[in-house]
Every structure is written in C-alpha cells, then in structure tokens.
Design brief:
Order of helices and strands: EEHEEEEHEEEE
Largest sheet: 7 strands, mixed
Radius of gyration: 14 Å
Number of strands: 10
CATH class: Mainly Beta
Shape: globular
Oligomer: single chain
CATH architecture: Sandwich
Length: about 120
C-alpha cells in the first residue's frame, strides 16, 4: 500500500500530498493542543533566506477560498493563493540521529535554503 494511498480531496485532483509519517506526527502534535483543532493549514508567507517560507498551523475554520484535502483521516486546508506555490508539493516527516523534521518537496521551488524551510519560485 502506498504511503499516500488514503488521500481524498474535495476537488478532482490532489494539489498537495502528505505522507503517512507526516500525518502521524501532525496527529501527535494536534493531540497536544488544548482543543484538538479540526484542520491543518498549509501555506506560504513572504520571508526566509530564499524569499518565501512554508507555513503550517492548526485551524478551526475553513473559508470559501480554501481547498480541502484529507490524508489518513487528517483534514488539510490550503487557500487558493498558496496553491500557486504549493501545487505538486509533498510534505514528509523524517526522524534521525542528526535531526529530522518536516520536509517540503516542492517541484516549483527553483532554489531552497539549506534548512528547507524557505524557497524561491
């Protein structure tokens, strides 16, 4: 079975993908929140050493400009403006002795910083 086989979207095709390991870590972090939020919001913000940075936050509300995805039971929101930069992106989570964490694999990124949290399109 694929690491992303359980994905569902409200549209006809998936624009972002989350691996099972990313969902597992997000669900763990979400369980630590006071009121387990209903959604994970992915986005981009201006800044970082390469010009734009990825953003992840828990959210309780969905707006009219959001696309909703579901991966292994986790509901994910991405607004239409952020989709211009995140289309085709895969979010993964890795652990390791020398560190680990969330990793965005973005085919639209022409350049990324060393830490992988910012990029240029």
């Amino acid at each position: 079975m694929s690491d992303t086989a359980d994905q569902k979207t409200t549209g006809t095709e998936s624009m972002v993908t989350l691996t099972k390991s990313a969902v597992d870590e997000i669900q763990r972090l979400r369980s630590l929140e006071k009121d387990e939020p209903q959604y994970l919001r992915l986005g981009v913000v201006a800044g970082g050493c390469s010009g734009m940075s990825y953003s992840m936050a828990f959210d309780t509300e969905k707006s009219d400009v959001d696309r909703e995805y579901e991966f292994f039971g986790l509901k994910v929101l991405v607004d239409m403006k952020a989709l211009m930069y995140l289309a085709g992106t895969t979010l993964d989570y890795k652990t390791g002795l020398m560190g680990g964490g969330f990793n965005f694999e973005n085919p639209k990124a022409k350049r990324s910083c060393g830490c992988g949290s910012s990029f240029t399109c």
